[in-house]
Structures are given as C-alpha cells and as structure tokens.
Amino acid sequence: MAVTGRVRNWWSHSKTVALIWFSSLALFYFLFQMALHNSTSPPSALLVSDSSMSNSNRRSTLYDKMERDLDEHGAAFLKHGETSQSLSLSDLFTLKDGFVTPVLKAAHPPVRANVLYMSTKYSVPISEAVKQVFDPYFDKAIWFQNSSLYHFSMFHASHHIVPVPASEVEIEAEAAAVKAVAEGLCPLEIVLDRVVLTSTGVLLGCWQVVSGTDPANIRAKLRTALPRAPEKQLYDAAILHTSFARLLSHPKASLMDTDNTSNPIELFHKLVSQLNNKIRGFKATVSELWYVEEYDVLALALNGKMKVRRFQMGCSRA
Ligand SMILES: *[C@@H]1O[C@H](CO)[C@@H](O)[C@H](O)[C@H]1NC(C)=O
Ligand SMILES: *[C@@H]1O[C@H](CO)[C@@H](O)[C@H](O)[C@H]1NC(C)=O
Predict the structure, then answer these.
(1) φ/ψ of residue 146, rounded to 5
(2) Of 28, 87, 208, 251, which sits with the fewest C-beta atoms within 10 Å of its C-beta?
(3) What is the domain partition of the chain in residue ranges?
(4) Class of domain 59-312
(5) What is the pLDDT of residues 157-189, one digit of tens each?
(6) Ligand nearest to the CA of 150
(7) Which residue spans traverse the membrane (predicted)?
(8) In the prediction, which pLDDT does 25 show?
(9) Which ligand 2 atom is nearest residue 260's CA?
(10) For ligand 2, what atom is nearest to the CA of residue 259?
C-alpha cells in the first residue's frame, strides 16, 4: 500500500532522526552557552542604571544570532545520524496507529525545573497557527508541543547534565523557596519578537518583555533561593523562549516540488516567515511560575510523567 510504504519510508528515515533529535538537545544547549559567552557585556554603569534596557538589547542580539543559526549551520536534523551508530536509536519516538508517539524514559534523578507557564488562552491560538503552516509540509515527521504545556524555561534546581539529588524534605524546601520567589514577581506583559527555526530543528518563539519582572531578574532570584542548583544553567540569563514544535525529518517531497524548491532550507525560511507574518507581535501575559519535577526525560516537552506545583506571581503592579 502506498500509504504504508510512505510511512515505512519515513520511518526508516526517521529512526536516524530520533537520534539526531536527542543529540540536538546537546547542540541546542551548546548554542545557548555560546551565545552567553559571546554576548558583549555592556559597561557596568549602564548595566546598573538601565538593566531592563540592556536585558532587552541582550535578547535582541541573542535572537539575531539564533535566527542566523540555520543558515550558518545548515539543517543538522536532516543530515546527522546517518553516520553515527553509537547510540541505539533509541526510541524517543515510535509510530503507534500511524501517530508519532514519544517513548518515555525515566530520569534519574528527576529533573527539577522552574518554568514560566503560558496560559492556553495564548498558547492555543499560537499552536493553531503553527499547525496550519507546518502540518501540511511535514505530515507525521513533526512533533508539536502540547499547547497545555507551553512554558519558558527559567532555572533548573537539577538538570540532566549536572544532577543534584534531593530528598523529599529538600524538595519541599525548594518548592517553598520558589513559592516565596513567585510572590515577589510581577506578571510579565510580553510580545512575540520573532519565530526562529534552529539548525537542530526546533521551532522557537522568542519573546520580548514589555513590563513585569525581567527574566534575568527572575533567574537571579531563583539562584539565590536555590543555592544548591547547578552553577551552569542551560540558557542565557536574559532569554525568554518557548518551543512550538520539533521537526523530525524532511518535508514531503511532493510539496517541495509544487513550491519549486529543491533546497529544504529555502522552504524552511519560507514557512518560518509565513508563521512570523501570522503571529509576530502577539501579546501575552504570564503570571504563573511552576516548579516541576520531571520524572521522565523531557517530560514537559514529551507529555511525560511529572509533578507540577503552580505558583501565582504575587505582585499586582508591574
Ligand atoms: C497535554 O497536556 C495535558 C496537561 O498535562 C494533558 O492532560 C493532555 O493529555 C496532553 N495531551 C496529550 C496529547 O498528551
Ligand atoms: C512552480 O513552477 C510551475 C511551472 O514551472 C508554476 O506553474 C507554478 O506556479 C510554480 N509554483 C510556485 C509555488 O511558484
């Protein structure tokens, strides 16, 4: 059957892709560390007198870099993997009844993440726009972030690179400390600065802050509240991003033809720009900080097992 053949084709292809996807995380972290390292630090006087301005400049510079990543590094998620056999193609995704389904793996110890939560009031329309643009081109070779779990990673009390085991008592103490931080935060009015597609195939929304507590300050407060947390965090201190989708493979060949482009990068730029035309400038309010224990690897991204504690931001004026 043609459909089965196509799925099988895609699937044999996508087995390598599962590997890439995993390695893409590493690349992704590398990207952000690099950005952090490269970002020029403004004179300290400026930093003190006008830190919110410098944070927003810092975000712009970072987003510019992320936007160039696909051209500078190519679509790594299309190439990688064919060479490397080292990791068993591990099963991060499987096809179940024709649907891409994540294969969940327990995280030991569980990752403890602090994230800002985006309400479905905002995430659902975004998610619909993302699907409208990308779904026809990728069929099943794409994983969409669950719109009930759109989030902005802020700070990890423990992550998979530097695990910090904690007892139940210690976890309760961390959660209480995070709740206290949340009470001092002002809800953020944010605006979607742009959508970018990284070389690792992650479609990201990059946001700017109109008012409220700046992400850089939120991270600084969390660091003080969680002194045992890994020194090295995963992201730039100023970044405010949320992932919308992850591309797992090539776009459908038939559609590439009707677009008269044999270069997938060109098509990616076209799709990203279509999406930007739809949702760039979208405004949202963020008023919850979550303390999440992820029992599965990437639970927030893959609908895994987790325990969420939700804290409302307490400051009423921005
Ligand atoms: C999306 O997340 C919500 C909240 O955790 C959950 O109830 C729902 O089952 C998830 N959807 C899918 C398709 O897994
Ligand atoms: C692709 O090329 C064909 C003929 O060369 C043309 O009819 C069609 O409109 C083109 N499609 C796009 C999307 O540019």
Answers:
(1) -60, 125
(2) 87
(3) 59-312
(4) alpha beta
(5) 999 889 999 999 999 999 999 999 999 999 999
(6) 1
(7) 16-36
(8) 53
(9) 1
(10) 13
